[in-house]
Design goal:
Elements: H1 2-5, H2 12-33, H3 38-65, H4 69-79, E1 82-93, E2 96-102, E3 107-109, E4 112-114, H5 119-133, E5 141-155, E6 160-173, E7 184-187, E8 190-196, H6 197-202, H7 204-220
Parallel strand pairs: 1-6
Antiparallel strand pairs: 1-2, 1-4, 2-3, 2-8, 5-6, 7-8
Length: about 220
Amino acid sequence: MLQRRSPFIGFGAKATNMVAAIEGAFLVLTVFTTAMPMGWRIAYGVLGGLAFFYAAAAEIMAWVKGYDADTLYRELVDMDRTAKRSSIIAVRDGARYLLYHDAGWDCDFFPNHATAEGDEENLRRLEDYFSAGFDIPRADFTLTRVGGEAHEKYSTEHDERRWYEYTLYRADVRHMPDAWKADSFHVDSKDCRWMSVDEMMADPRIREVNADVVGMVKNRL
């Protein structure tokens, strides 16, 4: 976008159009000042006239419509509509799901990690994150990709509306760690607990911050 728009920022396009208009006018004047055959003079006149009027129209549009850094910024923001790409892990125990408390957001979330490029690489990183972050051996669980969704919502952290792209994975746990068997527990500096979807939606903070993700898990699992 920067490369395509750079000629139009500031006086770039206006100066280019002005030079083109002058060149067109010069070609028209050539008709009256050259001794070349009439056919060539007519051709120069037609080309000069077309070039002059096209450049003049472009110059007028450049001044009327304008293009500045603010317009470019808005276009760049529109291009990057996805502010955050996250992979969500849904760990189910009966009707309840595993959540951890994020101190920065002051909210309980499903285990999640920034989505990497490529499904295989993303799965590898997600397995590493889940194993190390929640103290469960890699051999004791399997992650399966369920699907993905994109949501636009208000970010309480950034005080603006942003796009979030989620990829949902289901965790099938073959052997649950002993620490996980309590209603709430602490692993790897994380405060965790089990909650049902209804309990999540009854929590004002989860409903405010993460209702779209809870809805995705409910609908897809």
